[in-house]
Design a protein that fits this description.
about 210 residues, alpha/beta, Rossmann fold, 4-stranded parallel β-sheet, 4-stranded antiparallel β-sheet, 7 helices, protein-arginine N-methyltransferase activity, Protein arginine N-methyltransferase domain-containing protein, S-adenosyl-L-methionine, PRMT_dom
């Protein structure tokens, strides 16, 4: 997260621009990691502020606000959301706030020739068979890659929207996606791109 400046700014702005929501409140940061959110919140000169890392005991009964940067690759990969849900159910007051309070995952077919077409000619030598093996191995697991807008074969569509105030562990553990996308741009179909948009993916209370 430290190098994701737009995401850092979104959290910082949401926290610092909602001082009234944080005033005299007890705040819990789940999965504090580097502690950057733990720096943003104390700048407001608040009441007790607590960090919760995995396996670290937490004895406080209820908190007013939970903040967490839990989003992994394609939203759910790191499984941190489970910890947020458990903490929400155990520690958040009924009228408490979540930062963020919702999240969205987008899907779109894409063409990424830079990843595969390289093998067509390596310094004049065809390595198509090796390239085929690379593609087969790549298809067995997700790849984290930067994809330009020009590589998208149609407009992105929402495939998952989560209301973090209501979603349950059962909901998360039983998510299934069946999605049909129609390409309307020219290009070689080479995969499905799942992504989060920094400013759309998480709605922060205002």
């Amino acid at each position: 997260m430290l190098q994701d400046h737009p995401r850092n700014k979104a959290y910082r702005d949401a926290i610092l621009s909602n001082k009234d929501d944080f005033k005299d409140k007890i705040v819990l940061d789940i999965g504090a990691g580097s502690g950057i959110l733990s720096v943003f919140v104390p700048r407001l000169e608040l009441e007790p502020y607590m960090q919760l890392r995995p396996k670290k005991p937490f004895s406080h009964k209820k908190v007013d606000i939970i903040v967490s940067e839990w989003m992994g690759f394609y939203l759910l990969h790191e499984a941190m959301l489970n910890s947020v849900i458990v903490a929400r159910d155990k520690f958040l007051k009924p009228d408490g706030l979540l930062f963020p309070e919702s999240a969205t995952l987008y899907s779109v077919p894409c063409s990424v020739p830079s990843m595969f077409d390289f093998w067509e000619s390596v310094d004049g030598v065809s390595m198509q068979h090796f390239g085929k093996s690379v593609r087969e191995n790549a298809s067995k697991k997700p790849i984290t890659e930067l994809v330009s807008p020009e590589s998208l074969l149609c407009d992105p569509e929402v495939v998952i929207w989560l209301d973090l105030r209501e979603v349950t562990l059962e909901d998360i553990n039983t998510i299934q996606m069946r999605h049909i996308a129609v390409a309307n741009k020219q290009g070689k179909y080479q995969g499905i791109f799942l992504f989060l948009h920094t400013f759309d993916v998480c709605m922060l209370p205002t």
